């Protein structure tokens, strides 16, 4: 979703119906929509995959979730800079106003998460089983 938006800025695509961003007028409601969808939708789904991998002792599932989560946070911090990261996705614990992490801390955290995911990946495992985990 973000790429369809940001590709306008680099002139990889063009908008006919809504040319605001192409003309340098970024609509705040569009940026808010991306933000909301990342945290309320994509990242929640990804966390469910990670949690299921942990609960069922399937490290490959957990690792793929961690890699996917890192990819989404990479998009978030590239688009917004500082963002909730270390305290994100903890609303069920009652943390509904997470602190914003500096972009540099997010990148450091993402690199560590990728290293953790790499350590979990086991090529001898039989795969992800029947069905689409997504």
**Topology as H/E string?**
HHHEEH
Number of helices: 4
Globular, elongated, flat, extended or rod-shaped: what is the shape? globular
Strand content: under 5%
Looking across the biggest beta sheet, what order are the strands in?
1-2
Percent helix, as a range, is 55-70%
State the major sheet: 2 strands, antiparallel
Outline the low-pLDDT stretches. Answer: none
Q: Output the structural class.
A: mainly alpha
Mean pLDDT over the full residue set: 85
> What's the total number of strands?
2
Cα distance, first to last residue? 17 Å
Radius of gyration: 17 Å
Name its key features.
134 residues; mainly alpha; two-stranded antiparallel sheet; 57% helix
Please characterize this protein's 3D structure.
It contains four helices and two strands, in the order αααββα. The protein is mostly helical and about 130 residues long. Strands 1-2 form a two-stranded antiparallel ribbon. The protein is globular. It starts with a helix and ends in a 14-residue tail after the last helix.
How do you describe this structure in short?
This protein is an all-alpha fold and 134 residues long. The chain has helices spanning 2-9, 28-55, 59-80, 103-120, and strands at residues 83-84, 100-101. Helix content is 57%, strand content 3%.
